């Protein structure tokens, strides 16, 4: 028998382990595939122009189907959606590992995105309904948030090791044991409360408009990164996204059983949490990318050594999330953790604006990473908690999906915007200094570092923006405190989202 909603499930801590394992798999997958891409490109004869589709195919499917996947989990049952998502992700990964040509690889990545869009919201909503006690929830989500935040850096280490010592195909195959263990564990330990299922019908017009709108938006940013912001197809995608998403909002305000009940996003605290998280991801994704390039291209680190170099950030994330955020979130208002957390993270960004060709790792890069990890870990934990707090149990899946949407769109914006800024600054530096340079190799490296630091300055201000948004919009005390303005009941739990790529 499933426990009644509100009763504490005796197997909830075992369930947390398997849910966290599944999320770790999804987060790892992003960084691992990025590391493996050069090897896969050479092996399968993929052109430089088509290489981006290995990343974009996943992003389009995942980002486009998240809201649909979240609502399917609400209607179909979260445990069922979670297990189907895991099995599908494993099969798609097997296809990717066995890929004999680029079309197979693109297909596997798109299928990973489809099943990831079902798996991620299901996992988040399972956490919402399994952990209803505020203090327990804080501990559980602290652990979960640490995994979500640190997973990308762990993926860098694991991806480097697999690519260096085995073969790029193992960066796909490694997902299979994760998925099998998590699926078996889910069947044994996850019990979904009977009354948490949403019995309404699926909003097909809303699903179509949301999916097409999000695909157009994500593709617009992905194209802008490789083409130009004013290129005709890019502009068309942005216009189409605006029209489709505006139509989606109108439909949702009028249908009886909306895909995304507008009350989920119009609540001041939840809306503020989505905005703050989205902005932080814009800054973090860009920074992560540039620091990886800096260490590998400028400093000559191997993929494995680069992964090890990111471990201070991982440690900071874990400490910030489990020891600071989780311990304080039930005692102080969420805003009092989010604002200082984002400010500390922005200090780490500020340190990294000082990068040069021979910057000391121990004196600058490592302390910056610790500040970034501590700050983001501390801020993400309460922000993610607020993002679906006190939402109706029947809306838990789609509320969790909204957090993933804010992160997915934030990631797409971050990579496109900051890459464009870095490329422009690099080109301008070469133009200004080419005449006086006698060492071409040195000029190339200096121009790259100048591009990275210019983009990191932007990332610094964007993360400061997260702190400002948190200070101005968020007025809830966070987990276990206060009542919801929308009257949706109090204290329904709070999932932590996965970091998507």
TrEMBL record:
Membrane topology: Multi-pass membrane protein
Residue stretches making up the Major facilitator superfamily (MFS) profile domain: 15-477
Entry keyword set: Antibiotic resistance, Cell membrane, Membrane, Transmembrane, Transmembrane helix, Transport
Main location as per UniProt: membrane
UniProt-listed CDD domains: MFS_MMR_MDR_like
Pfam family, one: MFS_1
Cellular compartments annotated: Cell membrane
Keyword Transmembrane helix: yes
Transmembrane segments: 15-37, 52-69, 81-99, 111-131, 138-158, 170-190, 202-221, 233-251, 272-295, 307-329, 336-357, 363-388, 409-431, 451-474
PANTHER family: BLR6921 PROTEIN, MAJOR FACILITATOR SUPERFAMILY MULTIDRUG TRANSPORTER MFSC
Protein name (record): MFS transporter
Organism: Streptomyces johnsoniae
